[in-house]
Write a structure and sequence with these properties.
mainly beta; 4 helices; Jelly Rolls; about 350 residues; globular; eight-stranded antiparallel β-sheet; seven-stranded antiparallel β-sheet; 2 domains
Length: about 350
């Protein structure tokens, strides 16, 4: 069991007066907004009640089940719905305890279960080398400027994060228990980027970063963990995270967990290989065969995968999911264990 926010939609002040094209536009926006929230993992259930057309004023018309922690967050999300803005509906929010895995599936159920767990023989590319099928972007500045230039593009068979405007490229599906292989390079001036795993609520931090664990790609510090609304432990926590009283997963807290081996990256413009292994509540990271981080007791074990745009242009030639090998004491044969560097 877990906590959800249950939103009840009532007939609003404009329910009987909003007509014609304005009403049609509001309802189209209502449906599109539900799809958007479902893609972001925030809407888990939605549907109308079977009320007659001559139902009395203030009749309950339908419901949303939102995956957010507070009523205030639920109300804020509701204000993104054009039908609510137009007064067709008004909302009442109730906190509700229910089953822990409720997933919005639209009009038809997908063939894949949620989250996707790879079969032992499965291996597939999240980036197909041609387009961004299977991904969607979340660029906050696009809210006010829909025609803003694209942040993520495909160029010469490479997935490119242009760095600006800042945001994230997020998988449409969620995943659990996998090995993620990413090959990337800095084509120009190096800077900041990252791979986020177990991502869920968008814009959870600084109205930009989705709730997740970030595997850092910032030049010179590849493999650091950054905790974004989720937490994880590593050996030598005090040494690698600082004083315990400052630890946290929100703004102003010590969210960075330093890696084991700074400077594991290749020279600029050469390809780097990052491997992220998510196994239950453990996350291990390798950069160019160096074992750079080893987390355990993560507060989440599943979610979407995201690529950052955080100021610097970064190219990707491979973003590939592989099934986990049987757990071993040593690192799997195709990756060498690392020795910390001075």
């Amino acid at each position: 069991m877990r906590l959800w926010q249950l939103v009840l939609l009532q007939q609003g002040p404009a329910y009987d007066t909003l007509k014609g094209e304005a009403r049609t536009k509001a309802m189209q926006g209502h449906k599109a907004n539900m799809v958007r929230l479902a893609k972001f993992g925030q809407l888990r259930l939605a549907g109308p009640f079977g009320q007659p057309k001559d139902a009395p004023k203030d009749t309950y018309a339908g419901l949303f089940l939102l995956d957010v922690k507070t009523k205030e967050e639920a109300l804020e999300l509701c204000q993104s719905d054009p039908s609510i803005k137009a007064g067709l509906f008004k909302v009442k929010v109730l906190s509700w305890y229910g089953p822990s895995d409720i997933t919005y599936r639209g009009d038809t159920s997908p063939k894949e279960p949620w989250p996707v767990v790879l079969d032992k023989d499965t291996k597939f590319a999240l980036f197909n080398g041609e387009d961004l099928t299977g991904w969607h972007s979340d660029i906050p500045k696009k809210d006010k400027n829909p025609d803003i230039k694209k942040t993520f593009i495909v160029r010469d068979g490479l997935l490119v994060s242009l760095g600006m405007p800042q945001g994230h490229l997020i998988t449409d599906k969620s995943y659990q228990d996998y090995r993620l292989v990413v090959e990337y390079r800095w084509p120009g001036r190096p800077g900041n980027c990252g791979i986020l795993v177990h991502a869920s609520k968008p814009r959870m931090l600084y109205k930009m970063f989705p709730q997740s664990i970030e595997c850092q790609m910032n030049h010179g510090h590849a493999g650091d963990f950054w905790c974004i609304g989720e937490d994880i432990k590593v050996p030598d926590m005090l040494k690698r995270r600082g004083p315990k009283k400052r630890w946290g997963v929100v703004e102003g807290k010590a969210r960075r967990i330093r890696n084991l081996t700074d400077n594991s990256e290749k020279p600029l413009k050469e390809w780097n290989r990052m491997v992220i292994e998510c196994r239950g509540n453990k996350i291990d990271v390798w950069v160019n065969d160096d074992h750079v981080n080893n987390g355990f007791d993560c507060t989440v074990d599943r979610g979407q995968i995201a690529i950052q745009a955080e100021g610097a242009e970064c190219e990707f030639r491979k973003v590939e999911l592989r099934p986990l090998e049987k757990a071993k004491k040593k690192k799997p044969e195709d990756e060498k264990s690392a020795k910390p560097k001075n």
